[in-house]
Design goal:
Rossmann fold; OB fold (Dihydrolipoamide Acetyltransferase, E2P); 31% helix; 13 helices; 477 residues; six-stranded parallel β-sheet; binds iron/sulfur cluster; alpha/beta; pyruvate-formate lyase- activating enzyme
Length: 477
């Protein structure tokens, strides 16, 4: 049997694309292997959002030179460099952009038949195609990604994504809901909706009304349809939303839909208005804070995490301090921080990358220290409480403890129940455990399991949680 090894860099979108490529390869008779040594085909699914990821690709390709395998580069670097990648790195056999991944099996057959190195990197703007989870029942993970849209129309000045993923194209709501239904009946208990700015979603089958606000979207309607049609879904997440599309309709969905996670990852990037403007983020600090507050008012207990870039061109020490004060003000419980690095084609290239490397590092360190302090303080408040945990599996292979996540995305580890206990046989990936939290660690919680239930796909339940809440309006931008 032919073997293939997939190496994935970057974001959840790339993880999703790699999972779909694995399914295409299996259907074409490949066995997937974990290590590149001995594989017939090695696929490097790349990311070009940050300089380091691109450097990683170059060193990885260099390392693979010695192996007798076809080397295929997919993802954002493939789209960004296209043909140029072949002329610069001689041992790459194919370059395939994100919109051409369905061509992978055909490309491999051509290469096996002796074709010269190939490039497939065309955007499918006219007739967009979306990779769908084809995993067989039993092979579906507890948590499954479902793509809703691709591309991005925002054009933030530091970001290469609009150039590597193209303009926004949306999948029909009916296709998305049908995929969720199929995944849930095949064993998924959590669905994570993916999109570059997922909450700008518009259903191509239902045109927006004439003169609609450009910040409006049909994302909240999509969430409602999913919850109505897949009542056994335990948890519904989405990533990544753009703050300007946090509409009043989305706030109502957070108030009313019980499976919607009590965690939103809402990228802010900076806490200073001058920097936000130069980043072309299209919101001010005050508007961001108002949206964050509105989300927390809509759903009690909801927590927020974010992305921050430090050392953007021209960012002064005082402007960075504004970011630290915003992180405190919003009280984020998680944060991904990055040092600014100039990316090809982006508008920020015209600005001077004038914050010295050591200063970027100092700011990143200060940001991480604050974020860790806030996470530790948040986790400590949960000791003594009870959490509903969607079990993902053993804490690590062979471990006697189990691990899962709460509605707020906190990681919880708990001892396996004694074999003679009532709940012992019910524990497993996809089970829902009520756990008493007994200890807070740096990044996770530990608890004692109290009860366990195994959700059944066919068991109906009320899709809506009725909560008497004042109507929460999104702030006007
Ligand atoms: S919203 Fe901005 S940061 Fe996010 S993908 Fe689009 S351009 Fe990039």
């Amino acid at each position: 049997m032919k073997t293939a090894c997939l190496v994935t860099f970057g974001c959840q979108m790339n993880v999703h694309d790699s999972q779909r490529m694995e399914e295409l390869l299996r259907a074409d008779g490949f066995e997937l292997v974990a290590e590149p040594e001995g594989a017939d085909v090695i696929i490097l699914n790349t990311c070009s959002v940050r300089e380091k990821a691109e450097q990683k690709l170059r060193s990885e390709v260099g390392r693979l030179k010695r192996l007798d395998a076809l080397v295929v580069v997919t993802g954002c670097v493939a789209q960004q460099e296209g043909e140029k990648l072949l002329s610069r790195v001689s041992h790459i056999d194919a370059v395939i952009g994100p919109d051409n991944l369905h061509e992978l099996p055909g490309v491999l057959r051509e290469l096996e038949g002796g074709a010269p190195p190939l490039v497939r990197a065309q955007f499918d703007t006219e007739a967009p195609r979306f990779l769908v989870n084809e995993a067989a029942p039993g092979a579906v993970a507890t948590s499954a990604y479902v793509t809703t849209m691709k591309g991005c129309n925002e054009r933030c000045s530091f970001c290469i994504v609009p150039y590597t993923r193209g303009p926004e194209r949306y999948r029909s709501a009916e296709d998305i809901v049908a995929e969720v239904e199929r995944l849930v009946s095949a064993g998924a208990r959590e669905v994570v909706l993916l999109g570059q700015t997922v909450n700008s979603y518009r259903d191509p089958a239902v045109p927006m009304p004439e003169g609609a606000d450009p910040d409006d979207s049909q994302f909240a309607s999509l969430l409602r349809r999913i919850v109505e049609r897949a009542p056994s879904l335990v948890r519904l997440r989405y990533t990544s939303p753009h703050p300007r599309h946090v509409t009043s309709d989305l706030l109502r969905a957070h108030a009313e839909l019980a499976p919607l996670a009590e965690h939103v990852h809402l990228p802010v990037q900076s806490g200073n208005d001058r920097v936000l403007k130069r980043m072309i983020r299209r919101y001010t600090r005050a508007e961001f804070v108002a949206r964050a507050d509105a989300l927390r008012k809509a759903r009690s207990g909801l927590v927020l995490s974010t992305d921050v870039i430090v050392g953007f061109p021209g960012e002064t020490a005082a402007e960075f301090d504004d970011t630290l004060s915003l992180v405190r003000e919003v009280g984020f419980c998680g944060l991904f921080g990055f040092k600014y690095s100039p990316r090809p084609y982006t508008p920020a290239l015209k600005l001077r990358d004038d914050v010295p490397e050591e200063e970027k590092q100092r700011r990143l360190q200060a940001l991480f220290e604050l974020s860790e302090e806030q996470l530790r303080a948040h986790l400590a408040t949960l000791v003594g409480s009870r959490a509903t945990v969607l079990v993902e599996g053993p804490s690590k292979p062979g471990a006697k403890t189990w691990a899962g996540r709460t509605q707020r995305n906190e990681i919880v580890h708990f001892e396996a129940p004694a074999p003679e206990s009532e709940v012992s046989s019910a524990i497993g990936a996809g089970a829902v455990a009520v756990v008493e939290i007994i200890r807070a660690n740096k990044h996770s919680l530990e608890g004692r399991v109290e009860s366990v239930r195994v959700p059944r796909a066919e068991r109906p339940r009320s899709a809506y949680r009725r909560i008497a809440l004042p109507l929460v309006e999104a702030p006007k931008s």
